Amino acid sequence: MNEALVDKVAKDLRLASLAGVVAAYEAEHGVIGHGELAEQARADRDAAAAARAAVQRPGAAWP
């Protein structure tokens, strides 16, 4: 098999594993809604912006 095919198979296996983890989480806690995804995306963007700002300010504490 060539390297691209090996990479694709590995990626497919990782995605299948992730799908299993998400399904197990949703079975226990309920379906993850669009609102929850949007809220987490905002929190992630805010955290990334804070991290970038800290890197740009010498001596700033890491968030």
Q: Fraction of residues in helices? A: over 70%
**How many helices does DSSP assign?**
2
Structural class: mainly alpha
- State the separation between the terminal residues, measured CA to CA: 45 Å
Number of domains: 1
Strand content: under 5%
Strand elements, count: 0
Largest sheet: none
Low-pLDDT parts are none
What does the radius of gyration come to? 18 Å
Tell me, briefly, the overall form.
Answer: flat
Oligomer: single chain
Helix/strand order, N-terminal first: HH
Q: Look at the structure and give the mean pLDDT.
A: 90
Detailed description of the structure:
The chain has helices at 3-29, 34-56. By secondary structure, the chain is mainly α. The chain has one domain (3-56). The protein is flat and about 50 Å long. The termini are far apart. The mean pLDDT is 90.
Give the helix/strand layout.
Layout: H1 3-29, H2 34-56
In short:
The protein is mainly alpha-helical and 63 residues long.
Q: What attributes characterize this protein structure?
A:
63 residues; mainly alpha; 2 helices; 79% helix
